[in-house]
Specification:
9 helices, binds SN-glycerol-1-phosphate, 8-stranded parallel beta barrel, alpha/beta
Length: 240
Amino acid sequence: MNIYQNILQAKQEGKKLLAVLIDPEKIDLKNISSFFDKVHKSIATHIFVGGSTDKNNATENVVIAIKKATKLPVILFPGDVSQITPKADGILFLSLLSGRNPEYLIEQQIKSVPFLKNTDLEIIPTGYILVDGKKETATQKVSNTKPIAQNNLQLILNTALAGKFSGKKLIYLEAGSGATVPVEASIITLVQKELSIPLIVGGGIRSKKQLENAFSAGADLVVIGTAFENDEDFFNQLKK
Ligand code: 1GP
């Protein structure tokens, strides 16, 4: 499976993608089969696994259980090096470009090499940009970085383009998990117009309308976590 090629192809065909974000600290593995029954009836195309922290080192077991429950691509979205497991299909190899903390720009990436180099994980270089979602998010606290204000369009755009020029294959525009305000449509449109590589958008999207707004503004792939954690019936609104 070539995850990135599939994302590129979907972008070329104008097919929109939806990732369900599973936080290993929060998922109840006892309910995993009924959870995936709902996922499979929905328009979800990808499973992301990760969180800002994983205090119980649950990621690997969660990924193993997910792989048994679905054929959708399972992609690590790790908060740090401890959340890397070879049992997934791929990994978003993230650099927190909106921040100025070397730990999340390059240190964690160097520390991850011994865990990555002998795996079959598809490694997808991803520029990660945190914008202000009007709530102090876990990403902000754990990474000890500040999000970019949503009215600072030029800085958001230049950060995304600096990521592209550095060779990132994806840009992930993030308002932070549980954000009060998702990334504004105008920002998505501006970045998408200039970017050409696929654009992921996430954080604070909890209604079908907000999902459609992000897609029509230009997001190629939207990530939703909290809304599914709070109410699995949300999948019923997103049926195929
Ligand atoms: C967080 O973008 C993801 O990193 C998803 O955010 O949990 O708010 O859906 P939510």
